């Protein structure tokens, strides 16, 4: 683990403290565990239409961002809908949960409630991330500071060897968060601590030799029993699409910018339901014109790409929204892109990524 520490202020946006983007204020709405009811999803869709740009932008932490929020009233709307249970804690309610795990989905609201019940935890950095993995290895690989994985306790993705039963999982994660606050100094993340042993003191459980767990990130796209996995292109869910999902029932927003819809979805919803769709492998930051720092309209360029290995298009060196798992790094420059560090003109992007995809397939054979 790195021993470096952050020295600038944590400026993660929320609802009360928005980010001043080029296309207007950006508000981030936390959805612990990703679960959202049909009523709350409609409330977000209405807010996007009435106050923002008419879309819900999914994030790599299973949250939702509203962009261009130039009209007042968002906090009041979300409070009425039950989406802001603790104004003091709203930026620290960062909780991932395996979308297909009943145990993880059950523990997520319990962890959220316990988190909001501890006043001091409102002081956590906005980047501190909890995860509850039911054993599939899906969210365990998403860069959480502390993760309960079907009994195993992980710090910064590494198994500590400590084993905690499900009934004590929430207590253990809250204990780690409180210990992190005491030990953090100026650190934002567990990875920035030189010694993580103090984070585990006093947690009841059994100890065994730490293991290396396999990860299996992602939500299956297509039918999943009585539910269906879908994805909006580049994580942009229009308000109309959100309402169609709400008509189908409750849903879970995932950290892979996909959605588990727990009911029958209209066939014409305009969402990706084919697991072989080329767009599933590509993600992108907002780019121009939404971000003043971006050097290109990365979403327009990404939309012109066909078959590709997993790739993330970034408009600047901050690489906002990049996935935690392995991917091709596509970074904008003034006159083209750096693809894994090598310059590629815009006109050659599709061919270059297709070649990388072919090489990846050959390497797996």
From TrEMBL:
<dbReference type="GO" id="GO:0046872">
    <property type="term" value="F:metal ion binding"/>
</dbReference>
<dbReference type="InterPro" id="IPR051329">
    <property type="entry name" value="NIR_SIR_4Fe-4S"/>
</dbReference>
<dbReference type="InterPro" id="IPR045854">
    <property type="entry name" value="NO2/SO3_Rdtase_4Fe4S_sf"/>
</dbReference>
<keyword id="KW-0004">4Fe-4S</keyword>
<dbReference type="InterPro" id="IPR036136">
    <property type="entry name" value="Nit/Sulf_reduc_fer-like_dom_sf"/>
</dbReference>
<dbReference type="GO" id="GO:0051539">
    <property type="term" value="F:4 iron, 4 sulfur cluster binding"/>
</dbReference>
<keyword id="KW-0479">Metal-binding</keyword>
<keyword id="KW-0349">Heme</keyword>
<dbReference type="GO" id="GO:0043818">
    <property type="term" value="F:precorrin-3B synthase activity"/>
</dbReference>
<dbReference type="Pfam" id="PF03460">
    <property type="entry name" value="NIR_SIR_ferr"/>
</dbReference>
<keyword id="KW-0411">Iron-sulfur</keyword>
<keyword id="KW-0408">Iron</keyword>
<dbReference type="InterPro" id="IPR005117">
    <property type="entry name" value="NiRdtase/SiRdtase_haem-b_fer"/>
</dbReference>
<protein>
    <submittedName>
        <fullName>Precorrin-3B synthase</fullName>
        <ecNumber>1.14.13.83</ecNumber>
    </submittedName>
</protein>
<feature type="domain" description="Nitrite/Sulfite reductase ferredoxin-like">
    <location>
        <begin position="27"/>
        <end position="70"/>
    </location>
</feature>
<keyword id="KW-0560">Oxidoreductase</keyword>
